TrEMBL record:
Species name: Acidihalobacter ferrooxydans
Similarity field: Belongs to the peptidase M17 family.
Alphabetic keyword roster: Aminopeptidase, Hydrolase, Manganese, Protease
A family per Pfam: Peptidase_M17_N_1
Protein name: Leucyl aminopeptidase
Residue span(s) of domain Cytosol aminopeptidase: 302-309
Top-level taxon: Bacteria
Gene Ontology MF terms in the entry: manganese ion binding; metalloaminopeptidase activity
Listed CDD domains: Peptidase_M17
Cellular component annotations (GO), alphabetically ordered: cytoplasm
A GO BP annotation: proteolysis
Length: 456
């Protein structure tokens, strides 16, 4: 349900996009009845305001600040009456694409347990290739939202693995999954330790796609399907949204879909450690020392800092193949939210060039991200008297940075690495972005990859 069509059997309504600065000239060109209607209704020509116009033909006026503002039309699929609307006044393909993508994202509703009140209004795009391209992009974002919105009863480790298997099958990709105690014999001790207390066994999902001769790209996603905090138990309010703690995994799968849909010339690998951080008699404990896949020993300071533990084994496995680039997504720290709020993902990298590329891509895609530093002086906060590392610094300061530095210990400096620490959830509804699960930084990262690797 994306609200886009390339043909219409019935009457289409004219959706006239007018720049706010151009409104006086547009108004001057209208008929007297239209000018009187606008005056009598008290219409104010502010961006994203709209009004049905009188006349023999069906017309809707919408004021936009810019023709490439992708959120300009995003409220309209459910604000306008059902029907088909033809975009007027926007001639450039890139502008049409931005507006139509916002429309498609605004048409999204999560309907697994509750039906939508109505079907969205439809936007007519006669260029079928353009419509299909937008639907591929919006479809990947809808997948991310659906995965995150689904409660753990229906999106535990096994169901997350099934979603990955279905994605692999749809794109003729390779797929394997290492489950339960087999993780130990395959040297994934941290993934096993974090997930072993759950009735739903932990697992490592591994998807591979693309030509072996192409540059290697590995995506890693934190797949903590529910986080109680473990023995360092969260409060009730802190646990309420923890179905979304697999948001990093959802992003990795959504980005993988984009890459495969567009046939990006890369050798793709996706690694997702899928676990529940639960409480039981065999739960891992504060004070335990666990040796990781890389061989580094980690003293557990806090069982609620579990995401970095499952990620460290997956990142170590990713690095063993020496890919050209590793990108990981994780709902990792509240500290990143304190620093940047819930709507702006933090990212970390050692590469200034990569940081500039990603920041520019985020700005161009209206999908902003913000760099935080891998500040080496804080690495001492991860020192342990009895192990190579501690998983959580004693200080409450700089938590997003120390978490990123912990992960950095498992990625060699010879490999380009991007780490995104994100909320994956809209706390408030905005045009095209309903409250609930959200893809954040995904379009920015894909634009970076497309710029770097091109298309086949």
């Amino acid at each position: 349900m994306m609200g886009l069509v390339s043909e219409s059997d019935g009457m289409t309504h004219s959706l006239e996009c007018v720049l706010a600065d151009a409104y006086p000239a547009w108004l001057e060109a209208q008929t007297e009845p239209v000018r009187a209607w606008l005056q009598n209704t008290g219409f104010e020509p502010k961006p994203r305001r709209y009004l049905h116009l009188p006349g023999e033909t069906a017309r809707v006026l919408i004021i936009v600040e810019r023709f490439d503002d992708m959120w300009a039309l995003a409220e309209l699929p459910y604000r306008l009456p059902a029907g088909t609307y033809r975009l007027e006044g926007v001639n450039e393909t890139l502008q049409q694409r931005a507006l139509a993508l916002g429309w498609a994202l605004g048409a999204y509703r999560y309907t697994r347990y509750k039906s939508a009140d109505r079907a969205p209004a439809e936007l007519l795009l006669e260029d079928a290739a353009l419509r299909k391209a937008i639907e591929r992009e919006a479809g990947a974002i809808a997948d991310v939202r659906d995965l995150i919105n689904t409660p753990t009863q229906d999106m535990g480790p096994a169901q997350l693995a099934q979603a990955a298997a279905e994605l692999a099958a749809a794109h003729n990709a390779g797929y394997s999954c290492t489950v339960g105690t087999t993780l130990l014999s395959h040297n994934y001790p941290m993934i096993h330790a974090v997930g072993r207390a759950s009735a739903h066994p932990p697992r490592l999902i591994d998807l591979r796609w693309g030509d072996e001769a192409h540059p290697r790209l590995t995506l890693v996603g934190k797949g903590v399907c529910f986080d109680t905090g473990g023995l360092d138990l969260k409060t009730a309010s802190g646990m309420r949204l923890m179905k979304k703690d697999m948001g990093g995994a959802a992003h990795a799968l959504g980005l993988a879909r984009r890459i495969m849909d567009e046939n990006l010339p890369v050798r793709l690998r996706v690694l997702i450690p899928a676990v529940e951080n639960s409480v039981a008699g065999d739960a891992y404990r504060p004070g335990d020392v666990i040796r990781t896949r890389k061989g580094l020993s980690v003293e557990v300071d806090n069982t609620d800092a579990e995401g970095r533990l499952v990620l460290c084994d997956a990142l170590a496995a990713a690095a063993e193949e020496e890919p050209e680039l590793i990108v990981d997504f994780a709902t990792l720290t509240g500290a990143a939210r304190v620093a940047l709020g819930t709507e702006l993902p933090a990212f970390f990298t050692h590469s200034d060039a990569l940081a500039t590329e990603l920041a520019e891509a985020g700005q161009a895609q209206q999908d902003p991200v913000w760099r935080l530093p891998l500040f080496e002086s804080y690495r001492a906060m991860l020192d342990s008297p009895i192990a190579d590392l501690v998983n959580s610094a004693a200080s409450g300061f700089g938590g997003a940075i120390t978490a990123a530095l912990f992960l950095d210990a498992f990625v060699p400096k010879s490999v380009d690495w991007l780490h995104l620490d994100l909320m994956a959830w809209n706390q408030r509804a905005r045009p095209g972005r309903p409250r609930g699960g959200e893809a954040m930084g995904l379009r920015a990262v894909y634009a970076l990859l497309e710029r770097r690797y091109g298309t086949a």
